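Quick start: what a row looks like.
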Amino acid sequence: MDNGAPAPFEIKLRGDIAVTASSNYNVGRSRWMPDGKAIAFVGLDDAGLTGVIVQDFVPGRDTTATRRKLAGFNPDYITETFAISPDGTHIVLSLLDLQSNIMMAEGIPGLTPARRKQ
């Protein structure tokens, strides 16, 4: 507020969808929008994808209905963090590309092959 007093405001994050450890990596990480009239934060959409959501900031008022997607929400990546340019015209996203690999190695010196049951 203009007088420096605390401004009552709360952003409730989605809790009604199944969240995996990977998909909520930094859900809630937030930044002010350059004009100071909204807050951008890493959140989940209805499909459980991570991205940047913007919500208007009005102290003492529930502005949940003003939420809108800004960037991210790609099923191949998890939005980890972000930054917005001072003029509000550019956004940079840090994305996680989760990959899992299973490999089999044979003929490793010092390893004894498992015995097969007969």
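That is the whole record. The chain is about 0% helix and 30% strand. The chain has one domain: 1-100.
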